[in-house]
Specification:
The protein is an alpha/beta fold. It contains nine helices and ten strands. The protein has one domain: Aldolase class I (TIM Barrel). Strand 9, helix 8 and strand 10 form a beta-alpha-beta unit. Helix 3 packs parallel to helix 4, helix 5 packs across helix 6 and helix 8 packs parallel to helix 9. It catalyses: D-erythrose 4-phosphate + phosphoenolpyruvate + H2O = 7-phospho-2-dehydro-3-deoxy-D-arabino-heptonate + phosphate.
């Protein structure tokens, strides 16, 4: 008997549909594609400073209930016109949850919340939700965590993020160079800005690397580079980095690398000291910088859901409260609208200030 040297730790193998097969099962209409394309262009304009509105990526920490996510999308669509002159709202639709140790890994990996890991079902649910967001006219954003699964849904994203734990990964930087949507790199959990700045520089370059085709075949792709990557400040081990001095330091680091001096700020995670209730305070200070005329801040991120707080995932799924996070704590819907109102007022005030300063004396 030949000596076995391969697959020693593989317990089970299951075939997934190819990306093309899943796309055919959950297709995108031309009208939905136009929603995504228009939203991407708006985000690009904001990132480049050609649109002075604030990009706001807002929504649940991670999606676990499609019905609640769709209700959130409908509510976001209803309030968006109130802020359209000042804010561009993109819904946070996160399907993969990075874990330092153990825990629920997200809808794609565990759609039934039971640990069985039905990835086929998870990909179907994730893609179906993004298609529904596009049908509603709501732009969607997500963190790009896995190197394979984006082939199944990434064409539906208007904005993407590379998280704090993967910003340093060469493979994620290469992948970012291929993605079609504008993309933010978070500073790592250490808080070190240079890591994310380097990632932006690398992702803007052309790369050649192996991947899988839409037909599920191994291939080598050559990318053009993604010119619309930007820095997300999320705080770090040393504490928050959303204050004016931290923003100026980030701008200086970007400009030293010949990058535009504009940043996005995450109101959650280390910037809120992992307390969701602090997010409105963080947003208020960011708003004060914007109202004072700062053009360094291109956007903010908020973790928000229908119901504030978070709940534990238990075996009795019927006990889960509808519209409440099972991962990080989120501010509730009413608090979310108040934060959006304050941010919109800040953008308008900053715009008036700049116009006033440009008036001839």
């Amino acid at each position: 008997m030949p000596t076995r040297i391969a697959d020693l730790h593989i317990a089970r193998e299951e075939l997934l549909p190819t990306p093309n097969e899943l796309r055919a099962e959950v297709p995108v209409s031309e009208a939905q594609a136009q929603v995504v394309a228009r939203a991407r262009q708006t985000v690009r304009d904001i990132v480049r400073g050609d649109d002075d509105r604030l990009l706001v990526v807002v929504g649940p920490c991670s999606i676990h209930d499609s019905a609640a996510a769709i209700e959130y999308a409908r509510r976001l669509r209803e309030v968006a016109p109130r802020f359209d002159d000042a804010l561009f709202l993109v819904m946070r639709v996160y399907f993969e949850k990075p874990r330092t140790r153990l825990g629920w890994k997200g809808m794609i990996y565990d759609p039934d919340l039971d640990g069985r890991g039905d990835l086929h079902k998870g990909l179907l649910k994730a893609r179906g939700l993004l298609v529904e967001c596009a049908r509603l006219g709501v732009p969607a954003a997500s963190e790009i965590l896995d190197l394979v699964t984006p082939q199944y849904y990434a064409e539906l994203l208007s904005w993407g993020a590379i998280g704090a734990r993967t910003t340093e990964s060469p493979l994620h930087r290469q992948m970012a160079s291929a993605l079609s949507a504008p993309l933010g790199f978070k500073n790592p959990t250490s808080g070190k800005l240079q890591t994310a700045v380097d990632a932006i520089v690398v992702a803007a370059q052309s790369h050649r690397f192996p991947s899988i085709s839409l037909d599920g075949r191994a291939m080598v792709i050559t990318t053009t580079g993604n010119a619309d990557c930007h820095l997300i400040l999320r705080g770090g081990d040393a504490g928050p980095n959303f204050d004016a001095a931290s923003v100026e330091a980030a701008v200086a680091a970007l400009q030293a690398a010949d990058l535009p001096g504009r940043v996005m700020i995450d109101c959650s995670h280390a910037n809120s000291r992992s307390d969701y209730r602090r997010q409105p305070q963080v947003a208020a200070e960011i708003g004060a910088q914007i109202a004072a005329g700062s053009r360094h801040i291109l956007g903010v991120m908020l973790e928000s859901h229908l119901v504030e707080g978070k709940q534990a995932l238990t075996a009795d799924l019927s006990a889960l409260q509808y519209g409440q996070s099972i991962t990080d704590g989120c501010i509730g819907w009413e608090a979310t609208v108040r934060v959006l109102e304050q941010l919109a007022d800040a953008v308008r005030s900053g715009r008036r200030r700049r116009i006033g300063q440009n008036q001839p004396t």
